[in-house]
Amino acid sequence: MVYTVPTVSELSNIYSLGVDVQTQRYARLTSAFCHIYGNKPDFVARAPGRVNIIGEHIDYCGFPVFPMAIALDTLIAVRANGIDRIHLANVNNEKYPARKFSTSGDIFKIDPTVHEWSNYFKCGYRSLLEHLGRRKGMGFDALLDGAVPAGGGLSSSAAFVCATQLAVQRVNGIDLPQTELALVATGAERYVGVNSGGMDQTASIMGCRGSALFIEFNPVLKATTVKLPKTDPALAFIIANTLVVSDKAVTAPVCYNLRVFETRIGALILAKHLGISNRPACRDVDPLTFKIVMDEYFSKKSCCDGGGGDDSKADSVEIWINRLGVMLEKVQEAFGTHSEGYTREEMVLALDMTPEELSDVVHEDQFLVHADRFKLFQRAQHAFSEAMRVVQFRQICESDNTDTDYFQVLGDLMNQSQNSCRNLFECSCTELDELCYIARQAGAFGSRLTGAGWGGCTVHLVPANKIDNVKNVLLREYYSKRFPELSATQLASTVFATVPGSGACYYV
Ligand code: NG1
């Protein structure tokens, strides 16, 4: 079954809670649009942010992740204008001033060195038109209202890019399947120099009210809805923002892109260690990921060569868990002697490449990185163990064993994930650790950073009847000490409970 982006005409079909507040917001957006452009919009393109429950920094390793869409979203009110111009405005026009582009010229020029809000719009526009093989689209007037906090780990950038692509495709009379749109959106942020994975864009486009998503990227993009187990009290999630802004595009060379680089080089060295780097499946792909290395190692051919294992039930959880377990041993063998990290010279030596070949293979010209040492061992340990936790998390959610203490087992996996992010992947920070510590003391069963980390948000698994208690303790122990100036309204959008929300749609 091929699904495209749905069109809805009732806000209650999008939002589970706060429909009145949303009704007022959409009315404000429409009236601001009329004020700026002198006409009502034809439609509103809507794409949500997401919270990742578990599976951090492994989408770009090809491993599955487990996010859910949230109610916070980006709206773009749109009206076709019949001329070759795009007029882009933002309801927050002081911070994000209006821009104008021609539909075939400057909109395709994106300077990643300039930190400019409309770059994300250009990324969405350009990647979609290039995908369609066009150099020019139809003109339109647009007004954006973004409710996902920027740099907060809830994927404001993906919500912006996805909403833009929705707007562009509808104005141009196109209706791509959701998976195709998610794949195109995934490539979009590369124009601003971020070597992005595909979790956020997929969760935003394919999110499903009431369910989390188990998203697989390899061999093909696939999102399976997973209902969270029914418990009494119910499972609930709280999001708490550290208010430390972490801008991926700005810190990419030392944070996000560096981790992508380390896992890519890790995959190359691991394939070499396993003696499979010259197989077409490893040699002829770009990028080579840990998932591809694992699959190739366990492919039928490897079994005949004395590696791998039975490939016949590749989908089953036991197979996943077995394979990931074996790979963790291989990671120890391949990288264990370099626990202090590799220098560039050591990586070049391990891969039997020239420094230029190494740079080429990971496209360093496009995605700059800066580091003296590259901790491939720790990054690989995180990637394989995190993938294992994601598979286990889904398995537990889908089990109907009435004896399972869901809070304890799911919470433990989230806590292990946080430890791994902090100690092995080094993408946490003091404030993220502190929020997790406080929430666990206050009754959260699982607490972890969500999204890229280095700031941004945390997510906490709590019994529904303890939401207020955990929130109050966070307010008292973290926010009132570090941010005493925040108003009640600001705090309400900083610490809040969330449920799985619906994915991207058009509102007409
Ligand atoms: P954030 O920075 O939270 O939007 C980023 C990536 C994801 C994923 C996570 C880490 C983009 C748009 N998003 O999320 O793909 O890799 O980090 O799990 O690059």
Automatic annotation (TrEMBL):
* Catalytic reactions on record: alpha-D-galactose + ATP = alpha-D-galactose 1-phosphate + ADP + H(+)
Q: Where is the GHMP kinase C-terminal domain?
A: 410-479
A single GO CC term for this protein reads: cytosol
Q: Which domain of life is it from?
A: Eukaryota
Record flagged with keyword Kinase:
yes
Q: Which UniProt keywords apply?
A: ATP-binding, Carbohydrate metabolism, Galactose metabolism, Kinase, Nucleotide-binding, Transferase
Q: Name one GO biological process term.
A: galactose metabolic process
> Which pathway does it operate in?
Carbohydrate metabolism; galactose metabolism
Q: Which residues form the Galactokinase N-terminal domain?
A: 32-79
Family annotation (InterPro entries): Galactokinase (IPR000705), Galactokinase_CS (IPR019741), GalKase_N (IPR019539), GHMP_kinase_C_dom (IPR013750), GHMP_kinase_C_sf (IPR036554), GHMP_kinase_N_dom (IPR006204), GHMP_knse_ATP-bd_CS (IPR006203), Mevalonate/galactokinase (IPR006206)
| A single GO molecular function term of this UniProt record | ATP binding
**EC number(s) recorded for this UniProt protein:** 2.7.1.6
Q: Show where the GHMP kinase N-terminal domain sits.
A: 119-207
Q: Which family does it belong to?
A: Belongs to the GHMP kinase family. GalK subfamily.
Name the UniProt record assigns to this protein: Galactokinase
Q: What is the lineage of its organism?
A: Eukaryota, Fungi, Fungi incertae sedis, Zoopagomycota, Kickxellomycotina
